[in-house]
Amino acid sequence: MAEPGVFLIHGLGGTQYDLGSMHKRLKNAGFVTHALTLPGHGTRPEDLAGVRMEDWLDAARAKYREIVGQHEVLHVMGMCMGALLALELVKLERHDKGRLVALAPPVYIDGWATPWYRGLRPLLYRVPGLPERMKVEEEEPYGIKNEQLRAIVKAKFERGENFHYGWVPLSCIREVDRLRAAVMRGLDRIACPTLVVHAREDELTSLRSAHFLVERIGSGKRAGLARMVVLEDSYHMVCVDNDREIVGKHVLEFFNANAAGGFGMGMVDPAMVPAEMAALLAAARLALEQGDFAALYRLGIPDFVWLQPGRNRSSGAFPGRKGLQRLQGWAGEGASFAAFGAAVINAGMAVLPATLLHRGLASPGVLALQLRRGKLLEARWFPDDLDAEDAHFGGEPLPDGPSEQEKAFEAAAALSRTLRKAPDNATLLNLYALYKQGAMGDATGERPSVMDMVGRAKHDAWMARRGMSREQAMADYVALVNRLKAEESLEA
């Protein structure tokens, strides 16, 4: 696809939904973002006990190979342990289709808050059973210098909210140490321009890590290939701490993007002539007049988002394909727009009056559409009378993030990558078909030729699930992965 992509890799204890602000910034700047939940993450900390460094790396490389052919330009970015995985990934894959950003990479675990006995870890690793049983707790300052934000994070941990693991087994730290050792070797094989972002006061890892990477990646004939940005008002969690705006600015500049991509509808250079913007707006208006939200989403980038205000069942953010499915839950009841006024266009934003129609409701307001490179980035609806829409639609907003079923589905996908023995071919095809049906719905595309026996078998297996609901496919996939993992545990 024409839009450049960015592959984001989360840190230890997080999920693919981390780095949310960076997803938003990158999307506003015209990028398509990709992410994954690493094996052992997104469920319970106990599930990390049997996961090895190779499992994380294999999952990241599999995702990379899935998406690298979709973009002419693909950048890779990781945070903390995700930065280590990103470094190793671009090294092993000989990545040269884009750039690399390493945020707070812990090549050395030697920050000011690490205990004096940190060097004794290798001895503890040798005690039978201890690495799997011993817990390493998340403690203050939680990587955050901003006191207000730190208090919020502390309260979330105390309430037991499942936004991030509150502890990890020592065996997990052992695997990070193994990953660190792998990263230190062969850095001269990295062929893409690299940016290292590191806080001077990082409590987990000192600036020694950043200096080490820049010196090794940019040595010899490739001098200048790597550079770093040092932050002066943050701890480890650089994407959310006091310097987050500086991080976003430098990342976008490094990716040769407009730094205006922000948390809201930033003024982004549309990279379109007026006639192209007029044609795109006309197509969007036609889709809205017809109540065809699927057509509207086809005019957007893959993670195009519709934003609807209020406190009712139509309210919320509806990003990408899954967002469209949620949006159609209420819009499919006959929602459309009419009475369009003249559009006012400024940089990449078009604002035009309109009226939302739905089962007797005629709610006037303003639509704001953001455009770039022939695509819609996002659309926001601003009604004149929000209370009237709340009263009309009723109910409560659906959660903006993934449903519990979707979380379980992605966790099962990560868990499947930890299987020690590959299942038989029939089971592998079943896993593939259920995952594709759960993630994408009915099969698309042409059937591969007889020369592509594997591709043909996979396509046929997916096609055999046509008509199965995504919810049922997700449930069957989770059950199958859990059964395979349980059988493997019994054999151990």
Automatic annotation (TrEMBL):
Domain ACB: 405-490
Taxonomic lineage of the native organism: Bacteria, Pseudomonadati, Pseudomonadota, Betaproteobacteria, Neisseriales
GO biological process: fatty acid metabolic process
Protein name: Thermostable monoacylglycerol lipase
Catalytic class of the enzyme: hydrolase
One of the record's GO molecular function terms: fatty-acyl-CoA binding
One Pfam family matching this protein: ACBP
PROSITE patterns: ACB_2
EC number: 3.1.1.23
Recorded superkingdom: Bacteria
Species the sequence originates in: Chromobacterium violaceum
PANTHER family assigned: ACYL-COA BINDING PROTEIN 1, ISOFORM A, ACYL-COA-BINDING PROTEIN, ACBP
